[in-house]
Amino acid sequence: MPKTKKIIKTFKAKKPVQKRKRGRPAILTSKQTKKLPLPTEPQKPAEPSQAPRGMRDILTTDKAVWDVLEKKIADLARAFGYGHIETPILEYKSLFTRGVGATTDIVQKEMYCFKDHGEDELCLRPEGTAAAARAYINHGMLNLPQPVKLWYLGPFFRRERPQSGRYRQFHQWGVEAFGDDHPVLDAEIISIAMRLFSEFGLPVCLEINSIGCVQCRENYKNELLKFYEPKQELLCETCRHRLQTNRLRLLDCKEPQCELIREGAPQITDFICEPCRNHFMEVLGYLDEVPVLYNLNPFIVRGLDYYNRTVFEIVPAPEDREQKTEEGDEERKNENDSPKRETEKTGAQVALCAGGRYDGLIEQLGGRPAPGVGFALGIERTAAFLKNKNPALEKASAPQIFIAQLGDAARRKALTLWHEVVKDIPAAAALSKEGLKAQLEIANRLQVRYAIILGQKEIIDKTVIIRDMEAGIQEIVDYNKLISVIKRKIEGDN
Ligand code: AMP
User: Is the CB of 351 under 6 A from ligand 1?
Assistant: First the structure.
């Protein structure tokens, strides 16, 4: 029997290990289960010098890590033959109410919507798949050879409760393959996401599930109702609501009492039809080929309505799940932690990337039926993980040398020299400064290893001074040999 067949037969979930603290009740009282209200916006008027809540500036050291990540993303997407697109940051609100689903958290609570002067209902895009699907329909891409493979990278907006790794403006790398439902595409898409992590040596786990087709889900939702209805009182308030509106989401609630109840819940894999089961087994078979390791996780359902069949999340390996950011810690200082937020702090649900198949989305948006599969990878979370594992990346785009000058003639020459040098070596300078001391202090602050010093004498002699900032040693070199000498030194240091 092929390996995947064996796996699907033993698809019953392992009982999750209880992480209950000694002395803490397993089921919280109804008072405790009351979901904490969303914090109200600050009462005092917003300070013009502060970024809006949940939105932040990405400063230079973080941006250096982002640059490395974004370059790798672009190289990888191009290497696999995906085409780069960009869609508007504003879309019609109806795109998401129709595409993402009216009962989803995103549409119900998290979109930034407004009417423009022409009374169009617009919103800041909360996710990319619906927008990419709209572009596919809009530009008649159905008439191109299928599948059409696209990628994009940019900001998205959700009015969520800000916390570590969760922002109101965040960035995603999205990859989509439209127009073909072959299971090999699911594996292709997943393997590209996994490849990004492996190229950076980041330890991650792929959690995968199949949520079947509409029919499989109808049967399953009825079973869920039968199971959960008698236990309603024990569920958190959100889950009591979800029981009526979005039953599958009961399975990915992180409230301790709901996780406990979930243990005995029926599993979707017992309800998926033969074609969906076969599709899933083929996806797993192709993943085995790459190979990509996976955990079958029947509780992965995803929060968006358009998904069917394959759904997956990529999470940090267990030992790396405690991701903290300074911003997140700051938020925690300002708010009371709810049990859910504690769970997030320990990383149990900190997905770096998530995706799946969405065969009905294009039709739902008014296009000729065409299947699709894709993922969205969170740049903030992946960059934080990358920085954590590889702190040196902060300096990836830092200048390697500093050009200092003394006197007006040297300043002029330094400007020319700077332009020559940057063809080969990233360099900084502070040409408006007068004294050498002030300039070398800047070089020190930038942590460059070598400063090139140019004065009146050097101009006459056609030389420059190279100062090793670490050792405090200086040497005079021929102006024309500067670039080759400095390159050799830098290579020797690495
Ligand atoms: P989703 O679009 O909800 O499927 O999310 C895909 C990925 O985007 C997640 O796995 C996260 O890495 C990232 N992500 C989603 N929402 C946020 C957010 N509010 N802040 C930061 N990253 C997010």
Answer: yes
Distances from the Cα of 228 to the Cα of 204, 261, 323, 433, angstroms = 32, 8, 33, 72
Atom of ligand 1 nearest to the CA of 302: 4
Question: At which residue do the structure tokens 């968006």 appear?
Answer: 304
Mean pLDDT of the 43-48 span: 76
Packing angle of the helix pair 183-199, 60-79 (nearest 10 deg): 140
CA of residue 226 to ligand 1 center, whole Å = 32
| Ligand 1 lined by 353 (C-beta under 6 Å) | yes
pLDDT tens-digit readout, 423-462: 999 999 999 999 999 999 999 999 999 999 999 999 999 9
**pLDDT value, residue 340:** 37
Q: How far is the CA of 62 from the centre of ligand 1 (A)?
A: 18
Which amino acid, 49?
S
pLDDT of residue 346: 36
Is the pLDDT at 205 greater than 70? The verdict is yes
| Per-residue pLDDT reduced to its tens digit, 311-368 | 999 999 998 876 444 344 444 444 333 333 333 333 344 899 999 999 999 999 999 9
Q: Which atom of ligand 1 is nearest to the CA of 313?
A: 10
Residue 147: is the preceding peptide bond cis (ω within 30°)?
yes
- In short, whether 160's Cβ falls inside 6 Å of ligand 1 is yes
| Structure tokens belonging to residue 446 | 């930038």
Q: What pLDDT score does 302 carry?
A: 86
The pTM of this model reads 0.84
The mean pLDDT of 176-181, rounded to a whole number, is: 98
Question: What average pLDDT does this structure show over 67-75?
Answer: 97
Q: What does the alpha-carbon distance between residue 82 and residue 74 come to, in Å, rounded to a whole number?
A: 9
Distance CA 193, CA 203 (A): 13
164 lines ligand 1 (CB under 6 A): no
Q: Is there an atom of ligand 1 within 6 Å of 170 CB? A: yes
DSSP string for 400-459: SEEEEE-SHHHHHHHHHHHHHHTTTS-EEE-TT--SHHHHHHHHHHTT-SEEEEE-HHHH
* Average pLDDT of span 154-168: 95
Measured from the CB, is residue 106 less than 6 Å from ligand 1? no
User: Of 357, 343, 365, 256, whose CA–CA distance to 304 is shortest?
Assistant: 357
